[in-house]
Amino acid sequence: MIQPGTLLNGYEIESTISQGGMAMVYRARRVRDGQIVALKVLREQYAADAEFVERFQREARAVASLTHANMVQVYESGEAAGWHFIAMEFVEGQDLKRYIREHGPLRVAEAVRIAVAVCEVLDYAHRRGIIHRDVKPQNILLRRDGTVKVTDFGIARALSSVTITQTGTVLGSVQYLSPEQARGQPVGRAADIYALGVVLFEMLTGQLPFEGDSPIAIAMAHVHDVPPAPRRLNPEIPPALEAVILRGMAKQPQHRYASAADLATDLLGQTSFWSEGPARREDEATRVVRRGAVVLGRPALARSRALVPALALTVLVLVGGGAWGAWRSVSAYFTVAEVEVPKLVGLSLAEAQGTAQRAGIDVAVETRAYSDAVPVDAIASQDQPPGKRVKAGRVINVVVSLGREMIAVPDLVGQPLLQSRLVVEGARLQIGQVNERFDDTVKPGLIISQDPPAGTRIPRGSALTLLVSRGPELVEMPVLVGRPLEEARRRLEELGLIVRQVRSAVSPDLEPGTVVDQSPDPGRRVRPSETEVVLTVSVRPGTEGRPPEAPVVTVERRATPAPRPTPRGGEDRARGQLRTVVHVVVPEGEAGQRVRVVVIDEAGVRTVYEKQHDPGDQVDIVVLSRGYTIIQVYVDNTLVQEIRP
Q1: Which domain covers residue 526, as residue numbers?
Q2: Looking at the chain, which terminus has fewer C-beta neighbours within 10 angstroms, N or C?
Q3: Same domain, 556 and 598
Q4: Which residue, 517, 483, 633, 635, is CA-closest to 165?
Q5: Domain end among 377, 401, 425
Q6: What are phi and psi for residue 70, nearest 5 degrees?
Q7: Residue of 240, 230, 236 whose CA lies nearest to 205
Q8: What residues act catalytically?
Q9: 251-278 burial string, b = 16+ CB within 10 Å, else e?
């Protein structure tokens, strides 16, 4: 954290505005003219990634060239004293997320006004080749006079390479993630339209369309689940507005609005694109089709009146002739012989056609579909069951098998295990065995190799075997004394080490939460799987018993005995599991903070603890897991620590 009064490239830090997993935002004064700005400063772990920083600065420079009344202006970006920053327009007010919490659900007129303003910004940026990629209420600011400001265009592309588990910021973004982003596919303007559809849903209902126990569960809901009908949650939403939201949230990008401008005109009631199919609308100057009704111009209407007598006579003749023809058809139908439908499933298409012809019926291919049980080009199903009596000449519709669906294995090497689970599930495959190995070059938690390799085509639903790095077998203890506790914990995580205990010591000369002692000592080479770190942090005199400023998480690893047979056969499942005790000290702040612990192991993703606690509460959670394990600790939906015991 940068202290007030610090000068950074001509900006004097005045106070902290907000902090997230990726950056800190400060209120700062530009020294040369006194202009108040918002200074977004990258956290240390991102500043150390040269590729990320280069992309971050490149995108910030591109956005700085844009000017729109509803866009937060980017003044400049750069680096000073090791800190990478973006100087932006300072907006007096609050973000839309907080506004929804305080006032939601919003009135229809207010929600539409905000959404239309965002549409205008997105359309302006899209036409200049810039996709936001992270549209969410936290990035929509409301000035005190009601003006809407959209921010964070400058980090959108840079963040596209960050996993959904690294920071609380990205965790928040997964609530508004488009299906194509969740699958890891390239995104375009349709991704921003989807996210804005979710924001509209939240503004008008006061809740999100998809919730889950973990970022993966929420992302997969965006891919596969149908959102609830907004009017079921808020009957005051007009039916047309509900249809606009649902079109904006269509799973396939081509089924959403073609542009943010189209979405805005529908929100304002100037068009009804929501009622049309995915294909582009017809020329409205010649023909207007709305909900099945054809609207004719005045000349056409006059001509139609002149044709009324002729049309009436024609209809009379047709009705009389139709009745005679229908009587003959019905009479002929009841005199046709009946035949028995043969069994066609399992036969090749040629065999099925021959069998049907001999039985006196015809076969028509309705569609082709994948099947795990029926070979390719064989009949997978028929719409009339074998043995049923039907009229001779009846057409039997059949589905022809495409065989087993084959999926190309995605490339997971070098990716975190949690992100890989999302990619694999999105590809309709699954992760089977996960093995671990020490590796001097691959960071802990990243995938070293996979079987089958990337690009191999395997049947849908097949399992992959992954090898995950545990990092170097021996690592050198870093110097942690003098660093803030959060920074020290993050450095230990990168090395695969965990904090066993955090002690406190009175130190009037240091900022609270600064590390003043550590064990093991700096420079000592230790084994991550066996070493638990003890840190001592500073507190001010008289504050020893007060809640910490930030959550304190410590971990105790305990291996359980190997599985043994039970008296009735089988194994004692409680044995052979990894037993981890997670200790959480709830930070200062409001009462009723929600502590949630999520576990990811070979059994999948699950929430093992979720309760509300007051500041200062000490919570102990016992976690049992099998195989490679990730434990995530959240406080009020913000990821505060990720543990790999």
Answers
A1: 474-484+497-546
A2: N
A3: yes
A4: 633
A5: 401
A6: -105, 20
A7: 230
A8: 134
A9: bebeebbebbbbbbbbbeeebbbbbeee
Sequence-ordered list of residues with C-beta below 8 angstroms from that of 37, at least 6 positions apart, any chain? 11, 27, 28, 29, 30, 75, 87, 88, 89, 90
List C-alpha distances in Å: 283 to 12, 273, 280, 287: 57, 13, 9, 6
Tokens at residue 255, please?
């089924």
| pLDDT, the chain, mean | 81
CA distances from 474 to 491, 525, 576 (A): 15, 6, 25
Specify the DSSP class assigned to residue 378: B
Q: Which two tokens stand for residue 216?
A: 């993966």
Render pLDDT for 242-271 as a digit per residue (tens, 0 to 9): 999 999 999 999 999 999 999 999 999 998
Distance CA 89, CA 83 (A): 19
User: Helix, strand, or coil here: 457?
Assistant: strand
Cβ proximity of 273 and 243 under 8 Å: no
> 545: Cβ–Cβ under 8 A, 6 or more apart, which residues?
616
Pick left, alpha or beta for residue 479 (phi over 0 → left; psi -120 to 50 → alpha; otherwise beta): beta
Q: What is the pTM of this model?
A: 0.56
| Full DSSP string of 195-243 | HHHHHHHHHHHSS-S---SSHHHHHHHHHHPPPPPHHHH-TTS-HHHHH
Give the separation between CA 63 and CA 38, rounded to whole angstroms: 16
Looking at the structure of the chain, the number of domains it has is 6
Place of tokens 């280069």: 54
CB 553 within 8 A of CB 634: no
Same domain, 129 and 68: no
pLDDT of residue 564: 55
H-helix or E-strand spanning residue 121: helix 108-126
Report residue 451 CA to chain centroid gap. 26
| Separation CA 610–CA 624 (nearest Å) | 16
Query: 59 or 291, which is more confident?
Result: 59
**Mean pLDDT of all residues in 485-489:** 88
Same domain for 184 and 75?
Answer: no
